[in-house]
Specification:
single chain; 374 residues; mainly alpha; Serine Threonine Protein Phosphatase 5, Tetratricopeptide repeat; 21 helices; globular; disordered N terminus
């Protein structure tokens, strides 16, 4: 019981005070290739020669506008326009190869087309090429090359590239690690309404990294990102209310923000709602409701929620006491790197027979197979 009460503070402070262990995939975003040019391309073309209408036809086939969607036909039109030097078509071919639409998926081919478009001044191609260099996707992994392309795109106003330069300075990849430089790039991107940059700027103020530590300023940026639908920022506003940082401490307000973030699928917020119901802060104490939220978060791969489910089964709170189930959840939580999960699993193991332990291991495998890999 004592251990579970500490989970609330662990969850609350982990995002704002913990060591940042996010890799470039998480910080730059999972779906990294920018294909927005295809969906936003103006279809109504005026004069401008043959290549513009050909490109437009490719876009129409790609987005199913006025014609039956046909990726292979789209590629054909893009290729024809690309042969005429249309840089948007060249970029679009890169996107098609990256996504594997109308052609066999091929990152190397995608990078080749992005490079051609980038050399012609297409900023989205520069950005995508930078990301592929950072990840070693279709090209040799090279952080300095990634920074070079991010910088070129940033100088031309590509906000995703501006944000990415902030990330590279923040984690020290391709450049010397520099929090102040990172904060400056995040601020530039934030001023262009880049949602993740706004959130990161809030984090920088909360932690005092590259800027003066200022909780009120952190809350301001978190709120701004939350209004734009950024889940982690929405959760962070809740954390600030829970801890009384930059705002008056208010458990009910914290729960309100946690619930909003949970509706966005933010697993830390979902887990936190479980804790708030378990300990009765900001809401009426309710073990069954706590278990419901823990289970939702655990299914999304939230380790602390898995650990908390182990505790609820071990104590029989909100569920029928079940050592096999407790053992299984502790076991899975340990695989997700949760501190004390191994210790708690081994403690409960002492209360179990050989057959129960075998069943617990079987349940661990079953649970693992149901957890989201996203």
């Amino acid at each position: 019981m004592k251990l579970l009460r500490f989970i609330l503070i662990i969850i609350a402070t982990g995002l704002l005070c913990g060591n940042n262990k996010m890799g470039p995939h998480e910080m730059l975003g999972k779906s990294h290739a920018d294909s927005s040019l295809l969906s936003k391309h103006p279809l109504a073309q005026k004069k401008g020669g043959e290549k513009k209408p050909t490109l437009s036809l490719g876009v129409m086939y790609f987005i199913n506008r006025g014609v039956i969607r046909d990726d292979m036909e789209a590629v054909k039109k893009f290729r024809k326009a690309a042969e005429l030097g249309e840089r948007k078509a060249i970029f679009s071919l890169g996107v098609m190869y990256f996504m594997g639409r109308g052609v066999i998926q091929d990152n190397t081919e995608a990078a080749t087309w992005f490079r051609k478009a980038a050399e012609l001044g297409n900023t989205k191609a520069m950005f995508n090429l930078g990301l592929m260099c950072a990840e070693g996707s279709g090209v040799i992994q090279d952080d300095m090359e990634a920074v070079k392309w991010f910088r070129k795109a940033a100088e031309l106003g590509e906000r995703k590239a501006i944000f990415s330069l902030g990330v590279m300075h923040f984690i020290g990849r391709g450049v010397i690690q520099n929090d102040k430089e990172a904060a400056e790039w995040f601020r530039k991107a934030a001023e262009m309404e880049h949602m993740r940059a706004i959130f990161f700027l809030g984090l920088m103020h909360a932690k005092g990294r590259g800027v003066n530590q200022d909780d009120k300023e952190a809350v301001k940026w978190f709120r701004k990102a939350a209004k734009l639908g950024q889940g982690k920022a929405t959760f962070s506003v809740g954390v600030m209310h829970l801890l009384g940082r930059g705002v008056i401490q208010n458990d009910r307000e914290a729960v309100k923000w946690f619930r909003e973030a949970a509706e966005m699928g933010e697993r830390e917020a979902i887990s936190s709602l479980g804790v708030m119901h378990f300990v009765g802060r900001g809401v009426a104490q309710n073990d069954r409701e706590a278990v419901k939220w823990f289970r939702k978060a655990a299914k999304l791969g939230q380790g602390k929620a898995m650990f908390n489910l182990g505790l609820t089964y071990a104590k029989g709170r909100g569920v029928i006491q079940d050592y096999v189930e407790a053992y299984a959840w502790y076991n899975v939580a340990s695989a997700y790197g949760v501190k004390d999960a191994v210790k708690m699993r081994d403690l409960i193991k002492k209360e179990m027979g050989i057959a129960q332990i075998a069943e617990g291991q079987k349940r661990s495998r079953e649970i693992t197979s149901t957890i989201s890999k996203n």
